[in-house]
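User: Teach me something about this protein's shape.
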Amino acid sequence: MHVRHSPDGRSVIRFRAAGVVFLLAHLLLVGWLTLRPLDVPWVTAANLRPFDGIRADLALGGFEAARRIGEGLVLLAPLGVLLPMAGGRLLVSPWASLARTVAAGALLSSAIELGQTGVPGQVVDVDSILLNTVGVALAHLLVVPVSRARLRRGNRAGAGDLSHLGHEPRSLRDEAPQGTTPTISRVGIAP
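Assistant: First, the predicted structure itself:
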């Protein structure tokens, strides 16, 4: 990414840096919550059938089901906002941003579940992957498009031109002339 040194460029860099810091902090918290060994007298069997765990949670009653399903939705939901924030793009297709963010959330959730196979007291649950991914998608849909539109509006209202900070391809005509290409003189072959 080409960033010119301007007050707007510095604010974008600070915004992205804050996104990266918050993202790393969140990932450390998630790692600690999900990959630490638990001292429990017994564990349930792994759930490899989609929606079986959600059905079991719903059978526990309203409050307990809402708590368990809510935990699954909330665990990785901040990634729906933090990943685009760390990317720092204002001018991007909303659908492409959603697809990238949800794919990253699903991959991270899958990696956590696979990592839990070797952790005592932790159990693999395919429904966790589904709930985590839905949480990432919901957080992204609720926050990111509105935030980007607001930032773009603020940009037009006098914050300066941030269009040069997007990932727009630059043509050769925009480049400054660099001079002639150096050449090597021909040397004859020795006998």
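Now, about its shape. Residues 13 and 175 are 23 Å apart (CA to CA). DSSP finds six helices and no strands in the chain. If you'd like, I can walk through any region in more detail.
User: That's plenty for now, thanks!
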